[in-house]
Structures are given as structure tokens and as C-alpha cells.
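Structure first, sequence second, as always.
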């Protein structure tokens, strides 16, 4: 395993792009899979199967998302151990991540009946849709251990700048999923269950491929060095980091969920326009994710090696390319936003309303740049308490902004509150950056 032995000179534009671009390309396949899932069940000629796959996928995605901390926490801890040259801890972190992933997945399998029941209580649907979605979820949930363990493996690979492996994993799983979708649904006429079995097999095969990519770690005895794997101090530190990241993520999710609920209070056309425009934010997040990952890996390695200059260079070079992305996206949204909206909806009323609020999507990428990049920088430094606290401030400011602006400006006020929360998170994290650098010294 190559080590970080040099300082800032090793961090080049090429290195940053080699980490980031495979993640960006991998992310590009995600919406394709969702479109195929919808399209194949759409060929059945009924509305219920489409709704069942949609609601089932959303519920399981939300349940799995709770364990998203495993990826971020594993990136930061592993990159720091790698930077410090502690190969034993790098390997032990892989074992810990796999154990947490398997335990979380098995808990979901055991608790599937109350989890599915509670999910439908919060998101009720017609009896037919709930019945089909229940079948879909009862099949897919058996791959929960694989899906959640993949969070940890993905973080472990990113920490070592092996993002090409992450890209191959994503392409393999989504490609296999699409192929099996077509075979099971169109060829074998398995309906909604065919989509579920396709995802089940794709996720377990993805885990098998991921473990093969990690085979070097399993050749030595370190991965089963139980004294280090279960070291109380390291486990406590990992638990604290992951808990803070979980709280931060729940607060972020609360902002977006409340945005959707508040938007639902307007007329149907405005609600639909908001949903269309949120896809612009999704595109931005997919584009920025790769450069945030580059910051995670480079900052973590530099911090582990106690190389302050390398930390600063890694943070600023990844942020530079993130800035290139957000400026490019802002220009694309400004010039082609209307055409993109037309592709997403055929309703003239929704198109007109979405164009009215399009300027907020032009402003969103540059205004959110600092928040996206500093998230990656602070993940690499495992400054999870700062992330939690600044997100809490952002959440409170968002709530106040909604309270003040929505009664006066309506949906404009709602969008302004969301953008204000981006700015507050970026500024507040930026004020903590100096303390992060001092940690490396």
C-alpha cells in the first residue's frame, strides 16, 4: 500500500481529478437505473406496479440512508490512518466497517415486519400499491447487509484514492441490475418481484466484487487482529465520529423534508415545479460529490501525516475544481434551464412556474459550493462535532428564515430560506477551518 511520505508537492491537479472524476461518472449511472426500474414495470400497463416500485425504493433508500455515516466516517478515519502509515489500523477499520454494515443489515432483516408496517403508516398508499410494495420490500430487504456494508467499503476505498474501483462497482451493480430487470420483468414476467430480485442479486454480487477489490487487506492477519479491531479507545472514537455525522445528516434531511412538506402547502402546480427544480440540486450534488471525496481523502491523509501544507493544498485544490463545477453548472442552468425543465414535464403550467423560480437554481451551485466542499474537508479531518454544530446553526437559521420570509414571499421565501441555509453552513464551517488546520500542526 503506497504511503503519503511527501508534502504538498505530491498533490497535483491530475491527482485531484483522478480521485474525483470516477465518482462523478459512477453517480451519473444512478438516475439511469431509476429510470429503467420505472420503465420496465411501466410496460405492465398498470399504474399500481409503478407506484409500488417507486414507494418501495424510496422507503428502503431512506432506511439504508440512516447508515450513510458509515461511508463518511470510514473515509476520514481510514485516510488519517493511511497518512500516519498505520497499516494495521487501515485494515482493522475495514473489518469494523463490515461488521457494522452486516449488523445493521441483519437488524433490518429481523425487524422487517414492523419497519415495513411503520413505513406505510407514515406514507400510506392504496391497498394494491401497498400489497405490491410490501412484496417488493420483503424481497429486497434480504440484501440490506450487503447494501449497508457497501457504505463502509466505499469509504475505505475512497480513503485510499481507489475511486476507479468504486466506479467499477457502481457500473457493475447498476449494469447487472438493469440487465436482470429486463430479463425478469420483460422476459420471465415476474412483475414487481422481478425488479426486487434484480436489485437483490445486484447488491450481493456488488458486495462480492467489493470484497475482491479489498483482497489485499485479507491476505495478512491484520483484518482479524481482534485486539486492534475491538480496541476500546478506537471503537469509542469511531462511535463518536459516526454519531455526530448521523446527527448532522438527520438535520440536513430535516431541512429537505420540511422543504417538501412546506411546498406541498402551495397549489399543485407550484409543488410540481419545486419537485422539478429539486432535480437541479440533485445534479449539482452528483457533480460535487467526486470533488468532496477528493477533499476527504487528501485532507485525511495529510492530517494523519501531520502535514499542514499538504492539508491546505489538498483542501484548496479540490475546492478549486469544485468551484469550476458549480460555475459551469450555474451557466448551464442559466442558458439551458428552460430546455431541461421542458424535458422533465410536459405541463405548460408547471413549465412556466418552474421557469419563474429557475434563478434560484442558477444561484444554488455557487452559493452551496463552500458547504459542499467544507463538508468533504471536515469529513476527512473527522471534525464531526463541528459538522454537527454548524448544521444545527444552519437548521435554526433556515427555520427562522422560513418563518419570516414565507408569509411575505410565499414560495420565493421558501427557496430563499433553503439557499440561506447553504450559505450559513458554508460560512460557519469556514470559520472553523483554521482550527482544523491547527490540528495538523
Amino acid at each position: 500500500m503506497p504511503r503519503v511520505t511527501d508534502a504538498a508537492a505530491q498533490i497535483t491537479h491530475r491527482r485531484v481529478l483522478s480521485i474525483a472524476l470516477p465518482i462523478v461518472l459512477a453517480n451519473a449511472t444512478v438516475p439511469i437505473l431509476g429510470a429503467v426500474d420505472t420503465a420496465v414495470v411501466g410496460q405492465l400497463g398498470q399504474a399500481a406496479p409503478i407506484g409500488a416500485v417507486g414507494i418501495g425504493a424510496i422507503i428502503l433508500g431512506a432506511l439504508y440512508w440512516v447508515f450513510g455515516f458509515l461511508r463518511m466516517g470510514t473515509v476520514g478515519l481510514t485516510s488519517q490512518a493511511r497518512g500516519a502509515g498505520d497499516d494495521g489500523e487501515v485494515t482493522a477499520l475495514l473489518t469494523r466497517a463490515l461488521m457494522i454494515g452486516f449488523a445493521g443489515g441483519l437488524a433490518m432483516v429481523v425487524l422487517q415486519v414492523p419497519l415495513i408496517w411503520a413505513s406505510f403508516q407514515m406514507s400510506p398508499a392504496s391497498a394494491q400499491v401497498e400489497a405490491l410494495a410490501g412484496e417488493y420490500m420483503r424481497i429486497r430487504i434480504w440484501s440490506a447487509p450487503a447494501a449497508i456494508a457497501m457504505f463502509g467499503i466505499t469509504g475505505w476505498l475512497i480513503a485510499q484514492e481507489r475511486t476507479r474501483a468504486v466506479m467499477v462497482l457502481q457500473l457493475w451493480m447498476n449494469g447487472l441490475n438493469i440487465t436482470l430487470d429486463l430479463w425478469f420483468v420483460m422476459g420471465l414476467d415476474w412483475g414487481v418481484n422481478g425488479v426486487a430480485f434484480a436489485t437483490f442479486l445486484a447488491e450481493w454480487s456488488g458486495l462480492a466484487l467489493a470484497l475482491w477489490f479489498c483482497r489485499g487487506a485479507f491476505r495478512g492477519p491484520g483484518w482479524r487482529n481482534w485486539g486492534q479491531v475491538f480496541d476500546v479507545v478506537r471503537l469509542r472514537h469511531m462511535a463518536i465520529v459516526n454519531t455526530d455525522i448521523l446527527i448532522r445528516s438527520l438535520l440536513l434531511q430535516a431541512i429537505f423534508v420540511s422543504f417538501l412538506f412546506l411546498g406541498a402547502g402551495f397549489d399543485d402546480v407550484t409543488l410540481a415545479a419545486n419537485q422539478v427544480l429539486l432535480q437541479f440540486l440533485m445534479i449539482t450534488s452528483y457533480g460535487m460529490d467526486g470533488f468532496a471525496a477528493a477533499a476527504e481523502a487528501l485532507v485525511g491523509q495529510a492530517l494523519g501525516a501531520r502535514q499542514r501544507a499538504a492539508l491546505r493544498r489538498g483542501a484548496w485544490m479540490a475546492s478549486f475544481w469544485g468551484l469550476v463545477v458549480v460555475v459551469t453548472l450555474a451557466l448551464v442552468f442559466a442558458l439551458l434551464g428552460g430546455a431541461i425543465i421542458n424535458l422533465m414535464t410536459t405541463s405548460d403550467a408547471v413549465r412556466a412556474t418552474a421557469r419563474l423560480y429557475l434563478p434560484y437554481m442558477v444561484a444554488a451551485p455557487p452559493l452551496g459550493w463552500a458547504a459542499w466542499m467544507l463538508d468533504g474537508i471536515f469529513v476527512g479531518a473527522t471534525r464531526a462535532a463541528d459538522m454537527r454544530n454548524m448544521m444545527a446553526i444552519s437548521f435554526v437559521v433556515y427555520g427562522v428564515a422560513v418563518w419570516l420570509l414565507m408569509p411575505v414571499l410565499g414560495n420565493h421565501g421558501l427557496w430563499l430560506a433553503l439557499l440561506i441555509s447553504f450559505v450559513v453552513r458554508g460560512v460557519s464551517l469556514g470559520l472553523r477551518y483554521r482550527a482544523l488546520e491547527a490540528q495538523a500542526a
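Margin note: The chain is about 85% helix and 0% strand.
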